[in-house]
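Late entry, written up from scratch paper. The run itself happened at the end of the previous shift, but nothing got recorded in the book at the time, so transcribing now.
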Amino acid sequence: MFEPIAKNVFRWGTIDGESGIMMYSHLLLKDGKIVLIDPIAMPGLNQMIKILGEPVAVIMTNHSHIRGSSLISRQMGIPLYIPDIVTVSEDEKIANMFFDLYNMKHGEQYKGTTRLPFGIRAYSIPNRHEMALKFDDYLIVGDSAYGINGRLSFYPNGIWPDATGDKALATSEALIPIIRETGANALLSGHMEDIASGLQEMI
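Output as recorded:
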């Protein structure tokens, strides 16, 4: 089920039953421990994870990537990190309804200043309601960018219609400064293709 991206990065995926779009999750491995990014729950997943190492955390990149995050973190007894982004955090009542609805009360909201496992650093993507995560040489995003035929693309290009290209341009303008700031050379995404190297040269 796991597809190796590098010696310390694996991914797995499935088709979204509503949109028909492929969605992917990532497993990060470091010193025998594992962090899961936007994990999709699948039969036998927990057992396979434990074969690779000791799971220590689940991190969501945005609120639409709940997937199996809450369930897996509860089943494994590990922390769940939820991005503290304006769409929810600006209204405590809405936030409480969101966390109750998806049984996420045990989760911890994280910001750019939060100390995440593996030394992962979080960057809020302007106007995208999403966090970009820097892990080693990788930048990890949920929806904002991905590879198509080995080239860097920005949401919604290749996923949803964007006749004028204005939406993709807005996304690129929000994310490119973060790519430059982090110096990341590779990209892990919740959709389409990962980019294994050469990210800086693509922007």
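The longest strand covers residues 22-30.
(Scratch paper discarded after transcription.)
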